[in-house]
């Protein structure tokens, strides 16, 4: 019972400990290999509270820092089989600290990219109904008759935009919206793909030069929309959902079950 109370207290405090920022850029070559550049930033307050609660629970504070080099190395096996840790370096930004890490992979179809990092804010995100720690982003790879590379990406539907048993839209509640805004103030999550070559076409509406954004959620920008709750509550059908998302600043999310990217190999 004591441990249960400890865990509940840790979750309650860490969920409101401060913001995090996570950026994942996947660079893929025409043979399906490539690199992953990942940046994770946590506020000093969040890191301090993580370490404090770990010590109170009898653990080692050094193991509580998700931005440490040891954690960066351990993440390679989580991303997928055959993924190797290349390098990393600590970074600071204002009152936040974190790490830039680089990984290499031989086969993009083996990757399992999480939309959310394992950080305090993700706990609050899951409690609010967002897909934190749920199904990962996965990949398929092939070629066209013209020898262009074709990447197929399966991005899980965000749980904050769920569907009912008959496929009908179920808009988030006011409580869920309020919880996300409060718990995740300052948070931002970005996942993007950059093919090595000329981008021929993509089904994603979020493409610039050769970068295709799979998801980009800026909580502060979205929360600054005075009509945010009204827009989300106006969702009546699944077709409404994408239009509503597109009308909210700070959100780049596509509800397509699959995103395709075709690119010509670099010379």
Question: Quick check: average pLDDT?
Answer: 80
Assembly state of the chains shown: single chain
Binned, the helix content reads: 25-40%
Molecular shape: globular
Written overview of the protein:
This protein is globular. Strands 1, 2, 3, 4, 7, 9, 10 and 11 form an eight-stranded mixed beta sheet that branches. A hairpin with a 2-residue loop joins strand 9 and strand 10. With 267 residues, the protein is an alpha+beta fold. Helix 4 packs antiparallel against helix 5. The N and C termini lie far apart (63 Å). It has one domain (21-265). The protein has helices at 2-14, 44-56, 69-79, 120-127, 174-183, 219-223, 228-233, 238-246, and strands at residues 20-28, 34-43, 84-93, 96-105, 138-143, 149-154, 188-195, 197-202, 207-208, 211-218, 251-253, 259-265. It contains eight helices and twelve strands.
Nutshell version of this structure?
With 267 residues, the chain is α+β, with helices and mostly antiparallel strands.
From the structure above, extract its key features.
4-stranded antiparallel beta sheet; 267 residues; alpha+beta; 8-stranded mixed beta sheet; globular
Strand and helix layout:
Blueprint: H1 2-14, E1 20-28, E2 34-43, H2 44-56, H3 69-79, E3 84-93, E4 96-105, H4 120-127, E5 138-143, E6 149-154, H5 174-183, E7 188-195, E8 197-202, E9 207-208, E10 211-218, H6 219-223, H7 228-233, H8 238-246, E11 251-253, E12 259-265
Parallel strand pairs: 1-7
Antiparallel strand pairs: 1-2, 2-4, 3-4, 5-6, 6-12, 7-10, 8-12, 9-10, 10-11
Helix pairs in contact: 4-5
């Amino acid at each position: 019972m004591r441990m249960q109370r400890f865990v509940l207290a840790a979750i309650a405090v860490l969920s409101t400990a401060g913001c995090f920022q996570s950026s994942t850029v996947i660079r893929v070559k025409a043979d399906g290999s490539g690199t992953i550049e990942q940046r994770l930033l946590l506020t000093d307050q969040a890191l301090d509270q993580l370490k404090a609660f770990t010590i109170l629970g009898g653990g080692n504070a050094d193991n509580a820092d998700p931005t440490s080099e040891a954690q960066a190395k351990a993440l390679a096996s989580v991303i997928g089989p055959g993924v190797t840790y290349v390098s990393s370096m600590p970074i600071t930004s204002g009152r936040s600290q974190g790490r830039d890490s680089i990984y290499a992979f031989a086969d993009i179809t083996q990757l399992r990219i999480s939309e959310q990092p394992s950080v305090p804010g993700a706990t609050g995100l899951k409690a609010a109904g967002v897909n934190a720690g749920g199904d990962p982003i996965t990949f398929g790879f092939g070629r066209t008759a013209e020898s262009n590379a074709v990447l197929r990406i399966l991005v899980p539907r965000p749980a904050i935009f769920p569907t009912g048993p008959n496929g009908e839209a179920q808009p988030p509640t006011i409580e869920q919206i309020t919880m996300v805004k409060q718990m995740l103030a300052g948070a931002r999550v970005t996942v993007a793909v950059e093919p090595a070559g000329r981008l021929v076409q993509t089904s994603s509406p979020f493409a610039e030069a050769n970068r295709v954004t799979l998801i980009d959620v800026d909580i502060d920008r979205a929360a600054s929309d005075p009509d945010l709750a009204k827009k989300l509550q106006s969702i009546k059908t699944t077709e409404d959902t994408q239009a509503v998302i597109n009308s909210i600043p700070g959100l780049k999310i596509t509800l397509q079950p699959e995103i395709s990217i075709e690119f010509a190999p670099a010379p």
